[in-house]
Amino acid sequence: MKTTSTKFQSAFEEDVYKGLISFPKYLHSKYIYDQKGDKLFQQIMDMPEYYLTNCEFNILQRHKDAIAEIIGEERGKLHTNKGFDLIELGAGDGKKTKILLKHLVDKNYDFKYLPIDISQHVLDELAASLNVEIPRLNVKIQQGTYFKTLENIADYSERRKVILVLGSNIGNLMHEDAINFLRNIQQAMSPDDMLIMGFDQKKDPQKILDAYNDPAGITEAFNKNLLVRINRELDANFDVDNFLHWETYDPESGTAKSFLVSKIAQRVHLNKLELEVKFDAWESIHTEISQKYDDKVVEWLAKEAGLSIENSFKDRENYYKNYIFKR
Ligand code: AVI
């Protein structure tokens, strides 16, 4: 567990400080997501260039029958209680999940939906919309971070568990962190449980670059929201116009990287951290990775985390895959 040193009042302060005094400079993408960042990400998901959302939507639409059969099947004898709990990590607005939920309810599967999200507001809105759209659904919302909630999973889930992580969120982690993430989930699973997770696939590099570099500048605003947030919360004076949003994709490693590049030599003050940061002209801050995968890499990650691939479902163009794992 991470501890915050006494010099800092929060992990945010410490991480920003460490990232900006490093060479090369970096900032963690998780800090993009304040209220404004959440809204910008919603807009990204609606952009035509950001194919990931539609692909996963289509996969769930096309394969809901097969997915329901796999997750609804009673196999192990471990759980005497029939039925299952569908636990979604980072549920958000549940737009994609609702396809599966509607189908499971229509087919009378015995299950409860347990969405977990960091934001209580998001969860309240999700619960209200589900109440109207799928009134027969049994829902219990859980506010918290993935791992805190997973650690206490036994407190609220007594049945077989199907854990759902959509949106290729794992892609924002380097492989080592992705393995730890999967291992944490694996440790919360019993042998009868399943994990369904989305992984964006390697594809035409141009398609990937376009998804992270839209002409409307929404992704740019999303990336620069890191600086806007630092200005507000750490009393800093970043001029966002002095930075360029820059995206790269390495087809060998499958890693898309976002940067903010300083257009000029400049000094920025973060008063709350008593820090002055000096940028040379064209110096970069690395802000995000969005990893793209193939079956070999997903198999390797799964094996390292003690999981095995049970099945996988892809969209028509092979852009994206949802894998079902068991331990
Ligand atoms: C949340 N995550 C999976 C998104 C991605 O594709 O890496 C975040 C994002 N960054 C830029 N556009 C979308």
Automatic annotation (TrEMBL):
**What region holds the Histidine-specific methyltransferase SAM-dependent domain?**
12-326
Note the InterPro entries from the entry. Answer: EgtD, EgtD_Methyltrsf_superfamily, MeTrfase_dom, MeTrfase_EgtD-like, SAM-dependent_MTases_sf
Q: Which UniProt keywords apply?
A: Methyltransferase, Transferase
Q: Which GO terms describe its molecular function?
A: methyltransferase activity
**Biological-process GO terms, alphabetical:** methylation
A Pfam family this chain is assigned to: Methyltransf_33
Does the entry feature the keyword Lyase, yes or no? no
Task: Extract the NCBIfam families matched here.
Answer: egtD_ergothio
State the name under which the record lists this protein: Dimethylhistidine N-methyltransferase
